[in-house]
TrEMBL record, chain A:
GO terms for biological process: amino acid transport. This is Amino acid ABC transporter permease. NCBIfam families: HEQRo_perm_3TM (TIGR01726). SUPFAM superfamilies: MetI-like (SSF161098). Signal peptide: none annotated.
Length: 218, 240
């Protein structure tokens, strides 16, 4: 039988996980964006070595399970370098490195979708490559890929639940702990589910607003 | 002065330009005409190295454009280009389109760049559109903004690559009028065009290209009345 009364006192404890989840998602997003842009520039650039490295990086992070990457960073790096890494930095690092690979593909596609004429017009005006990318090409690419990027962030927000395996006290982990303490797993996990769902709705809403703002020039 | 010597351009095995030589003097207005696929646009795009020539030498003023040591970006600041499809920056307003390169490439102050842009916008009759985004403009208006954008760099030469070919017929006139007044003001212009009447009226010389070769290089009066080559005759019979 469902008995939410048993878990109600623990709801504030679960809610505190929102901060943890957001920290991971935000940290990973920033890292993923920076990395994604750099990798995308390597991929479309003329330097073969950089292109190969970027492609290899992407194939590794897309070709192995995220939970494996997370555990390697959390357990294997301390073993290798004799340093301790807390669950939170490990989680941000793993998610950031991973989403960098995915975001780089999204951005690469976005850059390629920008009319080649934009580059020609920039060249004809004598605009240097870096400025052209930063001010002319990337802003247009970003606008086109906004929906895909939002999708990536929403996925990241949900997938962050796997940090549970390294013991980071996010929403998921807390729900699990509450469930374990009184054997009302279902109720606790359902509350976690509702929280994730609401977070996704809010992110979707914010994404739509951002898209709208960016389409001022349409 | 622009000097083109023995210009060759191949795309893979396809030789598009087969050794073109000509000299374009300051303040000259050149119309390049010819059938499609004759290499007109490629010729134009070689001048500012949007296409890299396979062979030959191009000199603009003192700069040997085709020399690897020449800073081509510097040369391009001095060579304005207008494209068939405008290529305005869609995420920037008309004013920002015009002032971006002067401010970011030439390092001109915002006030000065804006003043210059306003002046150019008045010149092309679009001052009231200065804060609009390109998607709010008609094709003809976009092309006039594109011309203003190129002029904002104070180029000594303007290249036009079929500037009216993508326009609805009723918008062709307004763009040609801007180009005509530019020609009258003494700008050196090289225009790839299908507008025969405009070429006849405005150009000092017609370069007729066919099959990647410069078949004819004559003043318009002569070109349109008694072309020297059989190929030009044939072409004119089709288009006039």
């Amino acid at each position: 039988m469902l008995d939410f009364n048993a878990v109600v006192p623990s709801i504030p404890y679960i809610l505190k996980g929102i901060g943890v989840t957001l920290q991971i998602v935000l940290g990973a997003t920033i890292m993923g964006m920076v990395l994604g842009i750099l990798l995308a520039l390597c991929k479309i650039g003329k330097v073969t070595v950089l292109r190969i490295i970027a492609d290899f990086y992407t194939s590794i992070f897309r070709g192995t399970p995220l939970v494996l990457q997370l555990m390697i960073i959390y357990y294997a790096i301390p073993q290798l370098f004799d340093i301790n890494i807390d669950p939170m930095p490990a989680a941000i690092l793993a998610f950031g490195l991973n989403s960098g690979a995915y975001i780089s593909e999204i951005i690469r596609g976005g850059i390629n979708a920008v009319d080649k004429g934009q580059q020609e017009a920039s060249l004809a005006l004598g605009i240097p490559y870096a400025k052209m990318m930063k001010d002319i090409i990337l802003p247009q690419a970003m606008k086109n890929i906004m929906p895909a990027l939002m999708n990536e962030f929403i996925t990241l927000n949900k997938e962050s639940a796997i940090v549970t395996v390294i013991g980071a006290l996010d929403i998921m982990r807390r729900a699990y702990v509450v469930g374990g303490s009184n054997y009302h797993y279902l109720e606790a996990l359902m509350i976690a589910g509702v929280i994730y769902y609401i977070m996704t709705l809010i992110l979707t809403f914010l994404g739509k607003k951002l898209e709208k703002r960016m389409s001022r020039s349409d | 002065m622009i000097k083109v010597e023995n210009l060759h351009k191949s795309f893979g095995k396809n030789e598009v330009l087969k050794g073109i030589s000509t000299v374009i003097k300051e303040k000259e207005v050149i119309a390049i005409i010819g059938p499609s696929g004759s290499g007109k646009s490629t010729f134009l795009r070689c001048i500012n190295l949007l296409e890299e020539p396979t062979n030959g030498v191009i000199t603009i003023g003192k700069d040997i454009v085709t020399d690897k040591r020449t800073n081509i970006m510097k040369v391009r600041e001095n060579v304005g280009m207008v494209f068939q499809h405008f290529y305005l920056f869609p995420h920037k307003t008309v004013l920002e389109n015009i002032t971006y390169a002067p401010r970011n490439v030439q390092g001109i102050s915002k006030t000065e760049a804006n003043a210059k842009a306003d002046e150019l916008l008045r010149q092309v009759g679009l001052y009231e559109k200065r804060d609009a985004y390109p998607n709010r403009l008609s094709g003809g208006q976009k092309q006039r903004v594109a011309i203003a954008r190129a002029l904002a760099m104070n180029p000594s030469v303007m290249l036009f690559d079929e500037p009216t070919s993508a326009l609805d017929p009723e918008m062709v006139k307004e763009v040609l009028a801007v180009m005509k007044s530019l020609a009258d003001s003494g700008m050196t212009m090289i225009i790839v065009t299908h507008e025969m009447n405009f070429a006849r009226e405005v150009a000092d010389r017609i370069l007729f290209l066919d099959g990647g070769q410069l078949v004819e290089d004559t003043p318009p009066a002569q070109f349109f009345t008694e072309p020297k080559s059989a190929r030009a005759k044939e072409f004119l019979e089709k288009v006039l």
